[in-house]
Amino acid sequence: MAFPERRIDTLQTVELAEGIEIHLRVAGPFLRLMAYLLDLLIEVAMLVCVGVLVNFIFPLFGDNVSQAIYLLTSFVIWWFYHVIFEVSPWGATVGKRTLGLQVVNTAGGAVTLGQSMIRNFLRGVEFILPFAPLIAFFNARFQRLGDLAAGTLVVYSRPRIDPIIPGPPPFAGVPVNITLTREEEAALLSFRYRCGGWSEARRMELASHLRKLTGEAGPQGVSKLIGMAHWLEEQR
Amino acid sequence: MNRQEFESKNRKEWLAFEQNLAASEKRKPTDENANLPAEFRKVCYNLSLAQYRMFGHQICDRLNGLAIRGYRLIHRKRSSFGEGSIRFVMGTFPQAFRREWKLFAVVSLVFWIPFFAMWWSADREIEWVQALLGPEQMASIEGMYGKDADTAGHLRQEHGSNFMMFAFYINNNVGIDFRLFAGGIFFGIGTLFYLIYNGLFFGAVVGYVQYSGDPELLWRFVAGHSSFELLGMLVVGMAGLKMGFALLAPAQLSRGDALAKAGRDGLPLLIGGSLMTALAAVVEGFWSAQPFPVNVKYTVGITFWVLHLLYFVFVGRRRHGA
Fold first, then answer.
1. FRET partner for A30 with CA separation of 20 to 30 A, picked from A167, A201, B92, B179?
2. Residues of chain B contacting A61 with CB distance shorter than 8 Å
3. Where in chain A are the domains?
């Protein structure tokens, strides 16, 4: 396991048939609301476009037929805009794709037509009661009622890549004399690769927790820790 | 093997996998030597190794992303639409209906009791009906089914008016179905409200036509599509109530899990019921207003009701290939 059992982040761990664990990054309500507003804008724009188009073709087909065309297209746009995009290979509406979100089932796979229908049809009534969408805040996966009923999640579609900000280069490798657990080793390495973004005081503060290991305090402690990380990675 | 060795040894394969993934996702031809499943398994193996050895977020996140994309691509379902539809119509839908027959009894009562109560009340005390319909509805009903009314058939002489009415019914009635289903999320209250309201309204229309118009005009018009429309609405109502009951009485599951299960189980009812309502719009748009003799209309209407009965009772009983 790369992560401890009790987590404070929103990663959702799913075990695949391949015997591996993947971590889905669940998207928060604010970004989803923005994506929804963007989609709403697009929907309204499409409806307006259809209205204008119908006005242009109206002399060709006559009153009834053009009105029928408008009714049918607006039905499709209003009820199936989200559904059509979510079951497409994109797995996301235009708004969600723009913001890097994707709709997946709880196992991380593509959603089916039915799942997409349920989660989108429920949205309409969910917004009638002002507290209903807030349910998304009360479960670990930020699922609103429609997501719960459909068994879907909204996740970030692209992996997050943290920038590496390594600290100052080590003067020399410092051998570690005791056996470290994997977690401890990983902590040392991530100290080395992240401390470039911290102030000197913060580095010293963190390094002081490991005084027992390094036997030094202050700047010497920091450089010794970096040296140990260097040794662990390169020289062991 | 430390992190650098691990990365430099495998980087080329990850890059190749990423490129092949991107090509496949866009339905473009992949590299000739590409073997996505094998590359995917390799990435999975690398991911579990990187996670176990704690090679850091850089590598783990990247491999995690690749594994998710590969999983989505390789495990996607690709059933043909035609075959899926046939299986749905000939099995899944009627089976789901029979499995939930108790819900059908509930929604039927919830709809038909207000319907007949309203109809019956028109005979004794027309004011209830008048209050529910309001002056505009009454005027429009008298226009369509009144004693000396221009019947619906005559209204439909204009070019394209059948198509126009079809589109209107799709937009209106199927939309109502979807709201009827969604209303079930409020512990079933929304679904019950729509069913009771529709029962009262239809009952009032029938009662009012009986009171002031020519009932034969009404029956002639609704006979053909009545079975599709009413049963379609009730079936969608079943799916909505299923969610409501799941929230009220989740049994052994958590409310969230019960809701997910109800959504899954009720889905065929939602889709099937909406399709029936769409069919009703076809019949209502292109058949119901045609000026055919009364007997033909009644025969067609009764035939459709019998076909529905046969469909829901008998279709999909045999299991193929277990």
1. B179
2. 160
3. 25-156, 182-235
Least confident of A105-114, A128-137, B184-193, B276-285: A128-137
pLDDT of residue B219: 87
- Look at residue A1 in the predicted model and tell me its pLDDT: 40
In the prediction, which pLDDT does B158 show? 64
Q: Is the backbone of residue A14 left (phi > 0), alpha (psi -120 to 50) or beta?
A: beta
Q: Does one domain contain both B92 and B134? A: yes
Q: Which of B200, B219, B218 lies closest to B302, judged by CA?
A: B219
Other C-beta atoms closer than 10 Å to the C-beta of A120 total: 22
Lowest mean pLDDT among A18-22, A157-161, A200-204, B184-188: A157-161
Same domain for B119 and B201, yes or no, is yes
**Do B32 and B156 fall within a single domain?**
no
A39 inside 8 A of chain B by CB: no
* Digit-coded pLDDT (tens) for A14-71: 888 778 888 888 988 889 999 999 999 999 999 999 999 888 887 777 778 888 889 9
Specify whether B95 is located in the same domain as B69. no
Q: Do A108 and B179 touch (CB under 8 A)?
A: no
The whole domain housing B18 covers 3-74
Which ipTM did the prediction report? 0.84
What angle, 0 to 180 degrees and rounded to 10, lies between the N-to-C axes of helices B255-286 and B175-182? 160
Q: Is A1 on the interface with B (CB under 8 A)?
A: yes
Last-in-domain residue among B46, B74, B102 = B74
B107 and B62 housed in the same domain: no
Q: Which residue from B280, B137, B140 is spatially nearest to B222, judged by alpha carbons?
A: B280
Q: Give the tens place of pLDDT for each residue, B294-319.
A: 889 899 999 999 999 999 999 988 76
pLDDT of A5 higher than 60: no
Interface test with B, best of A1, A11, A23, A25 (most B CBs within 10 A): A23
Residue that is last in its domain, among B74, B104, B123: B74
Q: Read off the amino acid at residue B154.
A: H
Q: Using the beta-carbon criterion (under 8 Å), do B40 and A150 form an inter-chain contact? A: no
Q: Give the separation between CA B258 and CA B242, rounded to whole angstroms.
A: 10
Residues 6+ apart with CB under 8 A from A24: A11, A12, A14, A104, A108, A153, A155, B68
